[in-house]
Every structure is written in structure tokens, then in C-alpha cells.
Amino acid sequence: MNSPHILYLHSHDTGRYIQPYGYAVPTPNLQRLAEQGVLFRQCFCAAPTCSPSRAALLTGQAAHSAGMIGLAHRGFALADYGQHLIHILHAAGYRSALCGIQHVAAKAETIGYQEIIPSSSRHAEDVAPAAAAWLRRRGHEGSTSPFFLSVGFFETHREYPAPGPTEDPRYCLPPAPLPDTPETRRDMAAYKASARLLDTGIGQVLKALEESGLAEDTLVICTTDHGPAFPAMKCNLTDHGIGVMLIMRGPGGFTGGRVLDAMVSQIDIFPTICELAAIAPPPWLQGKSWLPLLRGERAEIHDDIFAEVTYHAAYEPMRCVRTRRYKYIRRFDDRDAPVLPNCDDSPSKALWMDHGWAERAPAAEQLYDLIFDPNETNNLAADPALTGVLADMRGRLQRWMERTDDPLLKTRAVPAPSGAEINDPDGLSPREPTHTAP
């Protein structure tokens, strides 16, 4: 197989809340992509916070291994930008280009893309036409060298646009962690409006790919960084936070409208690309290629997957391990109150605040049975019948932390880089004044 072109489409804060995953969020272009390609029902990010998630995907390793333990625009960075996927692809003859949001460096030039495609904003209405024009030019030029094109959309990040005629709040169902109220219905209607704009932009890019004549030779990777920006979702280690959409289409068996239920992590994308393009995988990769899943050689490639939070707006160190049956979450901050700046302001957050969220202490350890409690609301960590399960999950997490040299093994107070902008964990909002790390 010749090295395929790679089109990496990525959104902000979408989770799995799109039509192909069964939600009442109309996204016809994403639905069409799923019906043509392969949809992963059980894909998880490595960190439910923006820059760490993207850094893990693009370096193929845990966020803390990559050095990205906080947000790029607040002063955090990769330990080595040479570990970014594009540099391995450059060595294999790929041409790299970036259009729209990237969120793994304060300045896009730091990453090393060979071309940065200008757009008037990071929103789909501007990013999609710019990326589409690039694809059409590429097809017209007739170049045979492979490319990696990253197209990043701000949608579905807050603030959401006003709901349109097709997003009537009266008929919206809020996400599972939230009560069904007028406030949350309006909030979900606004999310759906943002998802509509995202889907339109993705449709424009995919149409241009078809018109360019490059679609047959292009691997499309469509995903997001983490769950939506609602309470108990983004920046949380339940599946509401770490569960992400992933749709792939193209060479290597990513065709036919297949749906896979194997448990996979976004850190697997890098090694999958390496195998597909016949590139020797670099030594730092921690994921596994999922081409054996496509070929029917394996039903699963992971017994467990891991995710983490260190910094978002504020410091909130926690780690998790997930198996098919159980989820174990451990906090390392000994707090008796939630870290509210790590939840974006919203009508849904205001509703929770009005009903005493600030006084609800988070549990230091959480154990959930994902078969009988898929929404992860019944903490079984203190259940004597599950002592063995708890010990097993603790051990899995400990061994992963040791294997990946997690900084939390050395200190409960992992320092931010000098100059990073950090919120007070005792604050209420990410919009409050920050302090600068020494």
C-alpha cells in the first residue's frame, strides 16, 4: 500500500454527542462519514482537558509523558515538539499543513508544520472554506506525495450560538449527568446549534476532498478532544468526560459502515498510522495499532485504558483506569469541595451552583460498575464485596503510573511551568483573575 494522505478533522468539546452515536443531535455529514467508514463506539481520550488530550493523541503517549499537563494558551507546552506526529511523517516524505485550531502550542509555528493555512477565525464558517480550497488546489496540482492536513474547529466549545429553528429547547434532552429543566434544555439546544455548524464545516471539507479526486487515497480521522463543556463532563474522568467520537474512513480497511466496540484510546492513532503507512514506530509510543481489529485478528487490543487530569484552569490532580467492567478514579488533592474553575460557566453550571454544588465534596477514590451503573453515579469503593476488584484496579493504576513515570509519584503538588497562568482551585469560575506560576 502506498502511504495514504491523512486528513485529521478535530473538534472542541464534543464527546460522543452526535447523530452516529444515537443522540438527537442531527449531524448528517458525520452520519454519512460513519456509514462509509468505521465508527469506534468505545474510544477514549487520554485526558479530558484540551491541550493534554490533543498532545497525547499527537505524540502517542500519556499527556504527562509528553510533558503537556495543562493548557497551551496558559503557558504549558510539550517537552519535545519533535515527538509530534508530523515530524515522523516528514521523515517519511509527507507534507504537513494546519488549518484552524491546534491547541498544543501557544504559537502554531512552534510545532513545525510546513504550511499554516490562514483563516479569518477558528470557527467552522471560516476554517472549512480555507481547508476546502487547500484540498482543491492540492488535487488540481496533481502531486503524488502524501500529505497530513490538520483541520481544527472551535465548535463545539462554549460560548454556544443561539439555537436556530431546528433546535427548539422544548424538545431537547440534556446530557445524562444533568436534570431535565428549562435551563438545561436551553443549554443543550445551544450545544446542538454549535454541533450543526461543526457538521456543516466538516461536510464542506469532505466535499472538497471528493472533488479533489483524493478521497480514495486519504485516511480521514474525525474525532474530538473530550466530553462537552457541561458539569460532570469535560475535565472529568467518568466516561462523560473521556468518551469521544472517532470515525475513520479510507485505506487499510476503514470502510463499509462498520461499528467496532473494542475499547481503544486516542494514543493508539499514532501507532495505527505508523503501521498503515509502513513507518517504523518511534520508541516513545505507548499505544497499540488497531489494524488487527480491522483485520479481524483481535476482538480487543487493551485490557485497560488510562486517563488523567493535572491542570486545566486550576490544579486538580486525578487519574483513572477503565476496564470493560469497572472504572477506578483516584484524586490526589485531598479536597473537600469541587474545583469549580475547571467547569466552564454555563446555564447548567449555574443551576448546579444554585442547588449547592460548591458544598458537595468529591470522593478521593471512586469505583464504578459500568455494567449496572453506566452513568457512574454509585461509588462502590467502600463496598466490602468489591475489595478484590478495588485492589486490582488500584494495582493497574499504580503500575501504569510507574511505567509512564507519572510526576504524581514524586509529589502531590506537581509544579506548573514558570509563567503559566493558573486559577485558584477554591474559586468559582475560569474567568476569574489568575496567578502566575513562579
Task: Map the helices and strands.
Elements: E1 5-11, H1 28-36, E2 38-44, H2 50-59, H3 63-66, H4 85-91, E3 95-100, E4 115-117, H5 124-141, E5 147-152, H6 182-212, E6 218-224, H7 239-242, E7 243-244, E8 246-249, E9 258-265, H8 269-276, H9 291-294, E10 305-311, E11 315-322, E12 326-331, H10 347-354, E13 365-369, H11 387-403, E14 421-422, E15 435-436
Parallel strand pairs: 1-5, 1-6, 2-9, 3-4, 3-5
Antiparallel strand pairs: 2-7, 2-8, 6-8, 10-11, 11-12, 12-13, 14-15
Notes on the protein architecture:
The chain is α/β, with parallel strands linked by helices and 438 residues long. The chain folds into two domains: 5-294, 3-Layer(aba) Sandwich (Alkaline Phosphatase, subunit A); 305-436, Arylsulfatase, C-terminal domain (2-Layer Sandwich). The chain has helices at residues 28-36, 50-59, 63-66, 85-91, 124-141, 182-212, 239-242, 269-276, 291-294, 347-354, 387-403; strands spanning 5-11, 38-44, 95-100, 115-117, 147-152, 218-224, 243-244, 246-249, 258-265, 305-311, 315-322, 326-331, 365-369, 421-422, 435-436. The strands form three sheets. Strands 1, 2, 3, 4, 5, 6, 7, 8 and 9 form a nine-stranded mixed β-sheet that branches. Strands 10-11-12-13 form a four-stranded antiparallel β-sheet, with helices on one face. It has a two-stranded antiparallel ribbon with strand order 14-15. Strand 10 (305-311) and strand 11 form a beta hairpin. The mean pLDDT is 97.
